[in-house]
């Protein structure tokens, strides 16, 4: 492995290193714990505190005010974080994907979750085949792709993204949530004015910059409270556990190179 550099990091629940290798299309960020390469998707425990389901570990893919679209790879061994790619218009040639607008939040994933792409999740629509997404609404502005921390679940909304179900889980860094006494999204919203409109509009129109149709915010644009969001995450974790063991999902395990 040709390492460009190591970054030493620490979260509330684990110490780890991030290594960077390659550049451009081959650039990737790898996770290391105890000098062993680990998977961002499989090896970070979803729940850092036993039986406390509103506190989860989250990983950052796209820090706020960044345009490069990074994501956990489901098909590369150890699931490094890589930059997404897309086809150029009127060509089969690929290019790295960038967003057209900055986001006012940190964006990332919940380890050990999966939105099942093989079953009906709502009104005949299936999941988007990815780990659950998070929007970290904390004031943290110095995060990097690959950073991991504990977060409190405060809400959720559901996007029908190009005919796929794609839940977005709203979280705050646990330290900030405790300091501000935020337990529900409504608590956060009271302190942040027009934030709901900004968030929902971003996900409604985000694909139109690529010439695709608008997304739909399901359930009448509702942003659910923490209880519903916790249930969505627990279900996403159960779908992930099924992915690991259900004989009907053997093809998916092969696709994702899951051997356990």
Compact summary:
This protein has 260 residues and is an alpha+beta fold. The chain has helices spanning 174-180, 185-191, 195-205, 218-221, 226-245, 250-255, and strands spanning 3-10, 15-21, 28-33, 36-38, 55-62, 70-72, 81-83, 85-87, 94-96, 106-109, 120-122, 125-126, 133-136, 148-161, 164-173, 216-217. It has a single domain, classed as Inorganic pyrophosphatase (Inorganic Pyrophosphatase, Alpha-Beta Complex).
Walk me through what this model shows.
Its cofactor is Mg(2+). It is an enzyme of class 3 (hydrolase). It is a single chain. By secondary structure, this protein is α+β, with helices and mostly antiparallel strands. It has one domain: Inorganic pyrophosphatase (Inorganic Pyrophosphatase), CATH 3.90.80. The protein contains 6 helices and 16 strands. The strands form 4 sheets. Strands 1, 2, 3, 4, 6 and 7 form a 6-stranded antiparallel beta sheet that branches. The mean pLDDT is 92.
> The CATH topology is what?
Inorganic Pyrophosphatase
Counting structural domains, the number is 1
Question: What structural class should be given to the helix and strand makeup?
Answer: alpha+beta
**What proportion of the residues form beta strands (DSSP E)?**
25-35%
Number of strands: 16
Order of helices and strands: EEEEEEEEEEEEEEEHHHEHHH
Overall mean pLDDT score? 92
Gyration radius, rounded: 18 Å
Tell me, briefly, the overall form. Answer: globular
Structure annotation, total helices:
6
**Main sheet, how many strands, which sense, barrel?**
6 strands, antiparallel
Give the low-pLDDT segments: none
Which CATH architecture would you pick?
Answer: Alpha-Beta Complex
Q: In CATH's first tier, which class applies?
A: Alpha Beta
- Intertermini distance: 24 Å
Name of the CATH superfamily: Inorganic pyrophosphatase
Report the helical percentage. Answer: 10-25%
């Amino acid at each position: 492995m040709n390492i460009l550099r190591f970054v030493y990091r620490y979260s509330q629940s684990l110490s780890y290193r991030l290594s960077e290798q390659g550049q451009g299309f081959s650039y990737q960020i790898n996770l290391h714990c105890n000098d062993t390469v680990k998977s961002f998707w499989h090896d970070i425990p979803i729940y850092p505190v036993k039986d406390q389901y509103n506190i989860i570990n989250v990983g950052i893919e796209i820090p706020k005010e960044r345009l490069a679209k990074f994501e956990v790879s489901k098909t590369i061994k150890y699931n490094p974080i890589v930059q997404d790619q897309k086809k150029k218009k009127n060509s089969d040639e690929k290019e790295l994907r960038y967003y057209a607008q900055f986001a006012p939040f940190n964006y990332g994933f919940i380890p050990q979750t999966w939105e099942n792409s093989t079953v009906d999740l709502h009104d005949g629509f299936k999941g988007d085949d990815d780990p659950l997404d998070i929007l970290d609404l904390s004031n943290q502005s110095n995060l990097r792709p690959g950073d991991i921390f504990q977060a409190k679940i405060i809400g959720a909304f559901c996007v029908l993204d190009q005919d796929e179900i794609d839940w977005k889980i709203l979280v705050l860094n646990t330290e900030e949530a405790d300091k501000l006494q935020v337990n529900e999204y409504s608590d956060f919203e009271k302190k942040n004015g027009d934030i709901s409109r900004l968030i929902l509009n971003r996900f409604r129109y985000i694909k139109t910059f690529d010439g695709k149709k608008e997304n739909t915010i399901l359930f009448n644009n509702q942003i659910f409270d923490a209880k519903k969001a916790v249930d969505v995450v627990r279900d996403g974790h159960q779908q992930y556990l099924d992915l690991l063991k259900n004989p009907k999902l053997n093809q998916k395990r092969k696709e994702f190179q899951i051997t356990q």
